[in-house]
Amino acid sequence: MLTSPPITHCFLVRHGVVAEVVKASWASEEPLPRGTPVVVQTHRGIVLGSVLEGVRPVAEPGVVETPPASEILRGASTEDLQQARQLQEQCRHEFVDWSRRIADWGLDLQLIDIERTLDGTKVVLFVLNERGPECTRLALQAAAAGLGLIEVQPVSLDGVVTSPSGGGCGSCGAH
Fold it and tell me: Nearest-CA neighbor of 156 among 122, 114, 109, 116?
């Protein structure tokens, strides 16, 4: 007996301290109303997000729909929400230390926020800057100092600065 493949739905999900919206697949029939907290696998790693809206399939002939680059892993549990709060508090406390490091390393960057992935393995440093060598230097300095997996994400007044590949400008680390 042949079984049909699972139906995959797509949703727009907002995540991050500097909000980013991604198109994420959801391989479940469970409804996800607007505002539902979800755990999402994104280009940054596993993060907590919030459902915005379902994405309708493109009905225009000849238009090829871009597949989602992210995946909703599950609805967020009480434990996920608690973990996210603890990580936010940790980032709040780390802000001064990271600002000091940036100054001590002589980098021309302004730190505006910090975020950790939900599993706590990756730190994302949001800096007010365009993409460039200072971002890469920060990621390399952090790696050389043994500070773990770091991604430096530039932010402009228009929001997250993306490259054609869609990632941050520097991601390095030592495990």
Answer: 109
CA 105 to CA 100: how far, in whole Å?
Answer: 9
**Torsion sign over Cα 32, 67, 77, 7:** positive
Residue range 4-58, pLDDT digits in tens? 445 578 999 999 999 999 999 999 888 899 999 999 999 999 999 999 999 887 6
Token pair for 118? 């939900």
Are residues 88 and 165 part of one domain?
Answer: yes
**Whether residue 63 is found in the same domain as residue 94:** no
The pTM score is: 0.81
pLDDT 10s digits, 141-150: 999 999 988 9
Residues 146 and 57: their CA atoms lie apart, in Å, by: 45
Which range marks the domain in which residue 25 is found?
9-76
Tokens of 11: 């949703």
